[in-house]
Amino acid sequence: MRELTIVEVSNVSGAALTPDSVVNFVADHLASAVLGGVAAAVAGGSIGFLHGGDAMGILGLGVIGQLVGAVSGAVIGGVGGVIAGSLVSLSYSLPLAEQFVHTLVSGGIQ
Fold it and tell me: Structure pTM?
């Protein structure tokens, strides 16, 4: 029996870096970043819209507060979602996005 080289050990152990594995990794994390960004932007925008005009009822400026809250919540949530989505794989972020959609549709955002 002969001694294996470093390349052969890497190939046998599954640790070989191939162009396919790099492309699959980048594509998986890119898809997760896009999904996380969209889901978090919708979540942030809806929460910002719900609570944006809470403190402005006296002067009648609640609509302006809701719009500002929706836009700023969507921007902040979108940036955070892209960052968080790029750190995890799609198999982790997809169930979270599905859970958010079910919560949104059932009216559970408060």
Answer: 0.78
CB 48 within 8 A of CB 71: yes
Domain boundaries, the chain: 18-105
- C-alpha to C-alpha distances, 30 to 9, 90, 106, nearest whole angstrom: 30, 9, 29
Task: Give the side-chain half-sphere CA count within 13 A for 107.
Answer: 0
pLDDT tens for each residue of 11-27? 776 666 777 888 999 99
